[in-house]
Amino acid sequence: MEYYFAPMEGITGYIHRNVHHSLFPGISKYFTAFIAPGQKGKFSAREKNDILPDHNRGICTVPQLLTNNPQDFITTAMKLGEMGYREINLNLGCPSRTVVTKYRGSGFLAKPGELDAFFAEVFSACGGEGSLGEMQISVKTRLGVEEPEEFFRILDIYNRYPLKELIIHPRTQRDFYSGPVHMDLFSYGAEHSRCPVCYNGDIRTGEDMRALEERFPALDRVMIGRGLLVDPALHLQLQGGRMPDKAALRTFHDRIYDWYRQEMPGARPVLFKMKELWAYMGQLFEDGRRPLKKIRKAERTEAYEAAVEELFRECHTV
Ligand SMILES: Cc1cc2nc3c(=O)[nH]c(=O)nc-3n(C[C@H](O)[C@H](O)[C@H](O)COP(=O)(O)O)c2cc1C
C-alpha cells in the first residue's frame, strides 16, 4: 500500500512536510495545499516557499492547483515544470463557500460542460510536443456538489482524459468533512475509472484501514489527512509499526516549532500555527485536557513552552 499525505491548507506547508519526512519516512507523496494561480502564473510568497525545490529536497511533493481556468492552469503548470515538477494535482474537492461560489474546487463539479472543456484544453497542451510536455495531471475530487450520484457523470468526464490518478474523497460538497463517506460510490469509481484510484477519507486507525483493504483488496494507494495530523506515525503503524513514543513526538514538535520561529516574524503567527497543529495532535494524549487548554490560551512563548513541557511530562499517549 502506498500512503499519501493529504494537503491541508495552513498546516501541511514545507516546514511540516520536511520535519515529518525526516522523522516518519514512508509517505510516497506529499501534496501541497492548494495554489490558486493568477493569470501570470505568479506565486504568493507562501506558495513560492512551499514549492521551492530547495524546500523539498528528497521529498516527493506534488503541487496542487485550484482553478477553473485552463490557461491559468497551463501557465502555472509550465512554471512548475520549469522548477522540475512532473505531476500537478487539480483540486476538485475544496468545499469552502468562498471557493465554491466561484465554481472552483468542488464547486467546479456543478459545471460538467465547463469541466470537460477545461480538461480538453489542458490535455491538448500535454503530451510531448505540447507546452506542458510530459507533465502528468492527477485529480483530487469529491463526488459532486449536492448528490453523490452526480459522480456517475463526473467520472465519465474524467475517463475521457489520460489522468495519472484519481484521488476520491467520497463525499459531496454539501457533506463538507463529516457525515458518512459514500463507499458504494467509491466502489463504483474504483471499478469504472480508467486511471488508478486512490481512496481518501476518515482513515484514523488500523481498523479503518483493515476494513478498507477487506472491501477493496486491489486498492494500492490511500491518502490520509487528519489521521496523520493526530498521529504523525499513523502510516507506520498501519504497516505493523508501533505507536510513536513521546520522545519522537517531542522531537517532531520541537523541530517544527523551532523552524517556524526562524521563519516567521514574531510569536503570534508561530503560536497560531502551533495551536492549529495541537487541535489535532492533542487528541493523541489521554489526559491532556488541562495542559492543552493552557496551550490554546497561551499568548507568549514562555507560557506556550511551559504548557507543552507539562503535557509531555505528565500525560500519556492513548
Ligand atoms: C484544515 C484542512 C485544510 C485542507 N486543505 C486542503 C487543500 O488545500 N487541498 C485539498 O485538496 N484538500 C484540503 N483539505 C482536505 C484534505 O486534504 C482531505 O481530503 C480531507 O481532510 C479528508 O481526508 P481525512 O479524513 O484523511 O482528513 C483540507 C482539510 C482540512 C481539515
What's this model, at a glance?
It contains 14 helices and 9 strands. The chain is α/β, with parallel strands linked by helices and 318 residues long.
Protein model, in words:
- By secondary structure, this protein is α/β, with parallel strands linked by helices.
- The protein folds into two domains: 2-238, Alpha-Beta Barrel (TIM Barrel), CATH 3.20.20.70; 246-314.
- 45% of the residues lie in helices and 11% in strands.
- The chain contains 14 helices and nine strands.
- The protein has helices at residues 14-23, 45-51, 70-82, 97-100, 112-124, 150-158, 183-192, 206-215, 226-230, 234-238, 246-263, 267-281, 289-297, 301-314; strands spanning 2-5, 29-31, 61-62, 64-65, 87-92, 136-141, 166-168, 197-200, 221-224.
- Strands 3-2-1-9-8-7-6-5-4 form a nine-stranded parallel sheet.
- α1 runs antiparallel to α11, α11 (246-263) runs antiparallel to α12 and α13 (289-297) packs antiparallel against α14.
- The two termini are 25 Å apart.
- The structure holds flavin mononucleotide.
- The site of flavin mononucleotide (FMN) has 23 residues, from α9.
- Residues 6-11, 33-34, 64, 91, 93-94, 140, 169, 177, 200-203, 224-227 line the site of flavin mononucleotide.
